[in-house]
Every structure is written in structure tokens, then in C-alpha cells.
Amino acid sequence: MEFDLENPLTDPQDYNNGNNNYTLHSLFNLEDEHMVAQYYVHNLENIDSHVNLRRETVSLISQITRRFDPSLSYLAVNYMDRFFSSQGMPQAKPWMMRLPAMACVSLAAKMMKTEFNFSDIQCDQGFIFDSQTIERMELLILGALQWRMRSITPFSFLQSLMGFFKLKDPPLMQALKARAIEIIFMSQNEIKLMEFKSSMVAAAALLSASHELFPMQFPCFRRAISSCSFVNKETLASCCNVMQGILMEGYKSAFDNATRAASSSDTPINILDRNWSSSSTTTTTTTTTTTSSHSNSNVEREAKRQRKTGVYCSNGKPKLSQIQRC
Q: What is the pTM of this model?
């Protein structure tokens, strides 16, 4: 059965025909089994070598999966974090980072029924592993994760939590979900979010998306999602604060990039182009003024003809009787 990040439950009956409470209950019962250990998060926050190693491995996974759907990269990083959380961080040797990264990508591709060859996930860094070596690493990862490969992630909770928002317009629901998905993707690298359960990350992403898209309705959405019996209000507030910090960094980065792009556009060639455009505009204006005098006489003749035919009133407005209804 093909794995879908939004629908990790294997039994369709677990969704009980869209019963949000039943689905959430099933997901909440399972999500603890798919979380990383707290000591893993603590080490990432306090040991520079660990966070650097994770950053390099995530970068490597992104490089390997650049031609595939971003969901593949997300799932592979999820496997990697859970594996390192169970087995400990590997030594800082290039091949010891690359082999687990490639095996996690291979497992994610198999779970998502993504067609690939082992040559597709080999990196041009001088380390080439044969298929048997990668498969042995896969078995090690499977054992460490206790074969729990249908990961419970923030994507798993989106549809059920959106039911609390009571939005009736499908396009608005789709826009809210799409923005929440973007936020979840961009927040995976934030170590502080690993402290929270996937359900809290999903709720925080939805609230952040609703604050951007529907600021006037945000208080209602916050009350609605906080009314869920599975959601702890204090934990949700803390998670939202971390999420807002991530988004603010994203906005700042985008603003800085736009500022640099604007300043770099003032090259000598561009300045000459603007001066040329200015002089060309002056010439064009003169030509347009000359042409407009001929056009005005044509417009006046056309207006007289239309008044004669009865399509327009004497004040120039169209008669309602002459306009066809759609």
C-alpha cells in the first residue's frame, strides 16, 4: 500500500468516513511512537558537532532528492532523525553520513512507490555504494525504527484539525491547507520544533497560515482549534511562538534578498536604459499628442453615429434595453 504523508493509517476504517474525533484519537495514540527521544533534541541544541552533522546530512538528503517530490525528502529526514535518535549520531566521517542518508532516501522512495535507481541517489562526492551495501543499511534502519515506516507527521493531522475551522468555501480551505503545508516543509530543519508532537506542529502551522490569510478570523480559529480535547493550549502557544520565529526569519530573508536584488540592478547599463527610456517616452508623448487630435475627430463622428442608431443616450451612457443579459 502506497504511503501518503497525510494518510498514514493502514486501515481505511480508521478514518471512519471523515469522523474527526475518531481519526484524531487513532493518530494521537500512535504519534508518540514516531517521535525522537528528548535526549536527541537536547544534544542537537547543546552540542555543535551534532547539529552540524545533522545539518550536513539533511543537506545531503536534499541534494539526493532534488529531482523528486519534496515529500520524499521530508520522509527521508524523518527516518534519519528517528534512526539517529535510536542509535546515536555517527562519527563525523563523510561515508558514515552518506550511507544512512542514501538508505533513508531509498526507504522513503520505496514507501512512496517512487521509481528510482540506486544510481539516482549516488552523490558525486567520491563515495559510491553498491546496492547490497545500501540494502544492509536499510535493514539496520528498519530494525532501529521497529519497522514503523508509516510515519506520523504533522501532515497526518492537517485534514482532521481543519475540520474545527468550519470554513465552508472549498477554495479558502485549499488555500489554508496549501499554506500550512508550505510552513511545515520549511520548519522541518528547526530543532526546537522537535520538542513538540506532530499534532502540535500541525495545529501551529494551521494557525500561522490562518493568521496570514484570514487575520480578522484568527481569534475564532484559535478558539476553535483550542477546543479540541487532544490539544493542550499552553503547549500549542509555545509551539506557535517557535513557528512565528521561523516565519519571521523567512520574511527577513526574503526581504534581504529583494533588497539586494534591487540594489544590484543599478548597473551602468540599467541606468543608461532608464535614461534612454525617459527620452523615448518624451518623444512618444509628442507623437501621441499629434495622433490624438486625429483620433478625437474619429471618436466624435462615431458617437454621432451611435446616437442616431439609438444604442446610446444623449448623455453618452448605454441604454439598458440594448444590453444583453448573461
A: 0.74
